[in-house]
Probable PDC1 - pyruvate decarboxylase, isozyme 1 (Melanopsichium pennsylvanicum), 1176 residues
Amino acid sequence: MSSNNTNDQVKIGAYLLERLVQLGTHSVQGVPGDFNMGLLDLIEDHPSLSWVGNSNELNAAYAADGYARIKGTIAAVVTTFGVGELSALNGIAGSFSERLPVIHIVGVPNTAAQGAHSLLHHTLGDGRFNAFENMSKQISADSAILKTKQGAGDAIDRILVSAIKSARPVYLALPTDLVHDTIPADALKKALDCSADDNDPSAEKYVLKVAQKHIAEAKSAVILVDACAVRHGCVAETNDLINKSGLPVFATPMGKAIVDENHAQYGGIYVGNLTSEDVKNVVEEADVLITIGSLKSDFNSGNFSYRTPKESTIELHSDYTTIGYSHYPGIGMKKLLPKLSDLLSQDGKKRLEQTKKVIPKFENKLASEDKSQVITQEWLWPRMGQFFKEQDQVIVETGTSSFGMLEAKLPAKTRWVSQVLWGSIGWSVGATLGVALAAREEKLGRTHLFVGDGSLQLTVQEVGTMIKHGLTPYLFVLNNDGYEIERQIHGEQRSYNDIPAYDHSLLLDFFGNDKVKSNAQSHRNDAKTSEKQYCKVETKQHLDELLKDVKFNKPDRIRLIEIMMRRGDAPKALKRQAEATGSANKYE
Amino acid sequence: MSSNNTNDQVKIGAYLLERLVQLGTHSVQGVPGDFNMGLLDLIEDHPSLSWVGNSNELNAAYAADGYARIKGTIAAVVTTFGVGELSALNGIAGSFSERLPVIHIVGVPNTAAQGAHSLLHHTLGDGRFNAFENMSKQISADSAILKTKQGAGDAIDRILVSAIKSARPVYLALPTDLVHDTIPADALKKALDCSADDNDPSAEKYVLKVAQKHIAEAKSAVILVDACAVRHGCVAETNDLINKSGLPVFATPMGKAIVDENHAQYGGIYVGNLTSEDVKNVVEEADVLITIGSLKSDFNSGNFSYRTPKESTIELHSDYTTIGYSHYPGIGMKKLLPKLSDLLSQDGKKRLEQTKKVIPKFENKLASEDKSQVITQEWLWPRMGQFFKEQDQVIVETGTSSFGMLEAKLPAKTRWVSQVLWGSIGWSVGATLGVALAAREEKLGRTHLFVGDGSLQLTVQEVGTMIKHGLTPYLFVLNNDGYEIERQIHGEQRSYNDIPAYDHSLLLDFFGNDKVKSNAQSHRNDAKTSEKQYCKVETKQHLDELLKDVKFNKPDRIRLIEIMMRRGDAPKALKRQAEATGSANKYE
């Protein structure tokens, strides 16, 4: 074993890190443990990588999920064998469900100890060393359990490509005796090819012909953009289709803001029977519905209540296409979309005229009739919509926030970060760390989190990591005294939906102790920690003034804005969704 | 389906709860979710059960682990499908590794939706509904995935018995449509039989003969008590053996305090070559070593450094026995121990005289030569040993605390709660909640947590749950500015072993907001929340005075005692263990 990389040889750990950097990853999430510190040495010493050092592994996985959403490439999270990796699983499973590429790198005991089935700490005590990898395989697109240096580079390459092409997590087990062992470095000279596969030309030609015929014969066609358009890197292709075809476009909750909500052809959110009437009419009366990257989950489809017939739907997916009842496996949208756009550009102007007549106007309208100063769900979301700026990041927790913010119209180039399918409470706090790190790397705008007091408690310590890294997100905490989304579904007056009462005014100072900076004992070499501001808001007027304040609009510190709201108040869409969910899972 | 239980019929959920109550479980840990609230209704309405409502699922699983340790019966944790259950896995795996019976009850979608592979929220988005149960099976002794009401009661009974007899977790998937469905109630009239199986009489007789011969021929024999003695309910039998045999007794780190450390035959902790010389001599020079419930993991055995020959070792386990190289499967200690004790009582007095001559004296000796006021590891632990009282609970986090507290002599009936094998940082904070709840139910003494500032951050929010329930543990936070155990192993000056600086003086007030009590908006019906006290301690004198203070000794409030310690200082045993671990996993 050589401790130095030569021109021809590279440590296995360094090989992995070099690939991550080539793919555009510059922050690595995770928690140290005695089986991963050999890799952490390499990360800390790498000029293009920053070790985040999260407060726990679940939060680290959530942060990786958020980071991948903004960067559009793979995120990395490092944990230690057993105790560390298992804590991350819920976060990794969320990335599997929501289609985000994440590599979960687990430092595992040396190969000799594994072979001898030693009774090491962090094991199950029964000699099984494969239990944890078996668990992770259930939520991974691919995995590599390194046992020798032979083929290690190829295995790393294979799973990285697999993660990006499938938009799903992969798992890497890296033993302590291999991380600094060396392999040939040659392969690194060639970047990994993660581009989408070409479609079979004859099949693709046929599909295009059928699709074009359907659209040409339709009196009205509509485009519906969904999550997988962004997950599979088809945002430009999607926008091209919209512009060239002149067709009206709508978005699902998970597809929000992929298309600029100020676009002349954009009409708002379609979510089955939770949709506003004007949008519903246009979408459901269309003769042809073209869906891009559709992900028809219960919460993303108004509990499966689309009134759009299958026979008149064209579905474009990453690895297949359907037209009506015809299924075309292997025909992926990345390569199909540009050709479809070209075909549809022919009558684009004509269609655009038609679109202008029918497209509903989507605006941030404040309910004016309500004279009360109480901050309501109905008032809050359009008001927040007016506050955002181009290139801001908007993260919404599963709950009142993810439903409510659908009502807000977002500026161009806003990144919409929600977890509608997986819906793990607490996710948004960890995700905000990853989003804010990515936004800083990509020189994007501000980062805004919307989370309820209930969800916040699950992952609250990750605010400390934000402060440690000098990040300056806006943390809007909606304090409605417990788990409001659960109350909407079941147990409105049940105490199991209550939570401990936190004093949010102390949160930033608790997790970011300024006094320690002058502590001579400390060896800290972190970046400058964040300046901090806490605001408690109880009236519409106060929030309105705050959001208009020029100083407040400058993201020069981390801010916690506690918005006091009423129990029992919920966005309209959530109330209807909760009814549907409650009756699908009724207990009597 | 009937919504009321009749005399003959009972809801499946109620059947489960009744069994838990019969087994002595009165607190149920967990987090609400839309697939488990039907069960939570039954828990909240049950006169003998209390719903804990943890801050997240990992903490809930840790709390269940702690609760099971004190109660000596099964603990229960309730989560929701996917998002909830996966967050709990690290805690459940810890209970598997450390041998604690825990039932993980997961509220899952209704059977129809599962059968149709619906794209529900909290799913992986690919129609697989069995992925999560497959994951849990890796860390469960048994599981029941309920699909119909037929056989539901038997399945619940089977896994409960399995959990207790194997001292390991089990998994129950409870669909929303079955929890209130009814089954016959008859079976509940008969309590579950969880007692240990009888040994085969002839085989047992033979084993006893061989064991007795070995011991009779030995010039010196020694008993070594380990974790599984308490996990398999053999504490009384173990003490009986000690008293009747008159033999010297020692404990492993995981077996600490199972035998009263003030017992005349007790000599201290044996942990291979990390052991003090006087103990080492007695144990390693014995002709026969009788181990009870041995669990020879690296951290529990000084990195496998026992100098005790296999041929002169008698190992008593829950389901097998070994004498030298002879293996006797199926001969369990629960039934064997009383018979062995009777056989050995014959020469008990003679042996006791011999024991008194050789047994080392184990005392809380304070290092007196050191005049500095800096609180050192060497000084701290014996001083804490003097502070504890009979029936106190002492929880130590994996790290400096679990190694350091080995130096303290504990009073009789102290419960020693550590996680030496699994060693998941942050575990102790959740475990403290479960321990404190169990201690209150059982009317035991005070609860003390020893945790470093590094480990604390992973699970810190569970302090809020303690306050919500009016619990009054002593939380000793050892502030040594980061992950000291990791620094001892690797990366002493690495910034990846640094953590965000918390202001611990704000912790209790942040997680327990007194102002909210007067909030008319609140519907809280929790028990009275805890009174609170924070102390920062920087000198030996201050800590000494505090520990002597009469008011401080009264557990009438939750206390956070922040003890300022130096980076780089660690208990001797940890320093040696770290060297061994570091060299077994060296990176160069």
Q: What stands out?
A: The longest strand of chain A covers residues 102-108.
